[in-house]
Amino acid sequence: MNIHEYQAKELLAKFGVAVPAGHAALSVDEAVEAAKKLPGPIWVVKAQIHAGGRGKGKFKELPADAKGGVRLSKSVEEVRANAQDMLGNTLVTIQTGEAGKQVNRLYVTDGADIKSEYYLSMLVDRKTGRIAMIVSTEGGMDIEQVAHDTPEKIRTIVIDPAEGFQPHHGRAVAFALKLKGDLNKQAVKLAEQLYNAFIATDMSMLEVNPLVETTDGKLLVLDAKVSFDSNALYRRPEILALRDETEEDPAEI
Known about the structure:
Layout (H helix, E strand, L loop, with lengths): L4 H9 L8 E4 L2 H9 L6 E5 L10 E2 L10 E4 L2 H11 L3 E3 L8 E2 L3 E5 L3 E12 L4 E7 L6 H7 L4 E6 L7 H10 L4 H20 L2 E12 L4 E3 L2 E5 L3 H4 L1 H10 L7
Antiparallel strand pairs: 1-7, 2-4, 2-7, 3-5, 5-6, 8-9, 8-11, 9-10, 11-12, 11-13
């Protein structure tokens, strides 16, 4: 089962993960109110569909030169205009196929001053039962493309759940991302928080792309994609609640 980005970030925040402040919106007016709750002066309006490549996607109903499903807004008026463009329209991305997906929900977040972008994901190795944490300095890109073009820029750290997350795992993540000083310490802490969230909620996949370093020296999860083991639905009522909320969007069922 997949959940929306805003749900993934709310879940990760419960484990201490640093994410930008944001609010979900089902209407243009709700998007405007969401923006007013945030400090600004820059907001990001994000289409909430179960597919990657939203920023580079195109809306069927809009002109070919219209922006995609992730848009910077420099005023509340721009938030309103972007929300009007997205809600109810069909977003086509590299992962949706030509049919695209209708946008019924938005996520309005604080903007971030980005210095660098990184990639981090976690998967369950079904053969060994271990957790693979995959990291790369090439954030913001399709990891398959990175693996094809520059495989040396991808590092995999394997964690045995019986042993649990250890300090050397965190250090390996920070080393792979070439982070030093306080950023190194932040990466070690973040890797453990993400691992704890992954294990505690029975995730089958967690992808953070991008993980960013801000200009003021903070690591921030700018985008997150989460999938759950189907068995977790029966063990964890809180995960069922996320599914029920997701299924309020008719086009997402």
